[in-house]
What does this fold into?
Amino acid sequence: MPQKRIKTLSLFSGAGGLDIGFHAAGFDILGCVEIEPGYAASIERNKGPGRLFGPKLNVHCQDIRTFDPTPYVGVGIECVIGGPPCQTFSAAGRRSGGVLGTIDPRGRLFESYCRILKAISPAVFVFENVYGLPGANDGEPWREICNAFSRLGYKLRAEVIDSADYGVPQHRERLIIVGYRDRALNYEFPLPTHGPDSMNGPALVSIYDAIKDLQDPDEPSHEFDGLYGHLLPLVPEGLNYSFFTREMGYPKPYFAWRSKFHDFLYKVDRNSPSRTIKAQPGKFTGPFHWKNRHFTVPELKRLQSFPDEYELVGKFGKVVEQIGNSVPPRLAQVIAHSVREQLLRPSKKLDFALRPPGFTSTFRQRQRERTNHFKDVAKREIAERFANVTHLDQPRENSKEQFFAVYEGFFDKQILASRPRPRAAKRCYKVVDERHDQHIDLTIDPLSVKAKRQIEIKISGLSKYLLHIESLTCKATMLDHEDIFRIWDLIEDSLTKDSQFFTLIDIYGHYANRGDTVKVSTRITGGKKTSLEKAIEFFGSSENCGQFLSEPDFSAAMGCDHKEVRSLTFRLREMRWDVRLPETHATIRDERMLCTYPFPLLSDKAQLERRRSA
It folds into this structure.
């Protein structure tokens, strides 16, 4: 006689990834609570006769904080599943300016989870989140969340697991918490079903195995457009932008080490699982198909282990977002089976073997091994491609070049060989670029007698990335502070001119990942410095960038009143300095600030307009 299905309430349901897995394992999802209308619409699309979910499923498109669980009280709910949004604890959040954890309202959503648990009192709950939650903010949010669950009478088991170990063709680490009321029971996580940690199970599911029937054998390799698009075909499978760095042995680098995130230009190794699929990838963010294109929606669904017939509602970007934010249904199904068989419908015969005492997962060790493997792949590929190359460029002879730069605004620029006529709406500069040995002397002067202020910018440590260039000194005069952006724009031109680097950030390195190889200093002279000029000098030093700074420390360094700090930083942002505050970035807390780079953001695509908090 078939067992009675387990009545379940789903919170933070997303597009239904967790629900699909639990439904397949014998759980009856009675209700889903999801705030995003597009996600809720996907769940609605998949309920009804002949659909995955039955017609009686109720989809509540609303904020969890206003959700009333009363209709689900006393109806036999045995299990609650779901995990709150993870941005406040994620690695991406740490990179963008810190982790708020439970200080952010999103980090307090576990309280609504607890409120609903208290009202319904299910025998079991399953809570999932990012793997970094236990370590975020020295573990304080983790302890607070666990204590909140424990006060409700739940015994907890928690584990960080890699989805690839459970048959998902994607490495995706998630934290799973299983809470249960019956303290006489013991819950153990299931042993991996695939790979070296399994009990003689099959190998990890490769990308090709997952999507081979969706492939056209006659599909040609694609050409990818954009600033970095031409590099994608050159990336070997399994590697990313780091293939083009000096550290990997690339003779003429395109990027500094750790100047981008690991998904940048990441092309999958078709014979292995993919790296984690992102919810909101940029144009050059992988995973990329080995034919040098983005994956299609049907392919991404397979990589996330969604059933082919499961419909996701929305345009391409919104569908990708739903897939990237989902728990892989295959992983959810394995967890659901283990919860059912150990806690809710105890069975001596288990569908999935349990982890034995003392079991330790090796997925982190294997991650390091994969890294070393692909370093070897890169070295072999580079040795083969450049086997007959003894040098790519002769050192440039000492030279002196003079030209004129004409700007209208920040981004409209012309380079002229001869002196232009004065034009009221435009700013004109005489530029002298002099090179000797491994040094560049750059002189920049506006074509105006009104220029009084001088700025000197020194950059060193360039030779690790730039061939034959170790340092640059720029001496410039300024009409006003807007000139600083254009001076840095011309510095970028000078440094990238004889290299394969595209931008100054490619050379300097991403602020969250870089070492201290390239150093920058800034000095302004020509009279008494204003507070703004002191701030430009301060953040124009690499020593003061890429790290958090308290407002009192900044005001002391500037010699300005504490009340002046906010106005100063917003003036810097107007000049395109990426100075981040709690008002501009929700992940910054405790009245701190962060300046990402010792120069303004030079790309017109860089957005500095962020909504200030109320």
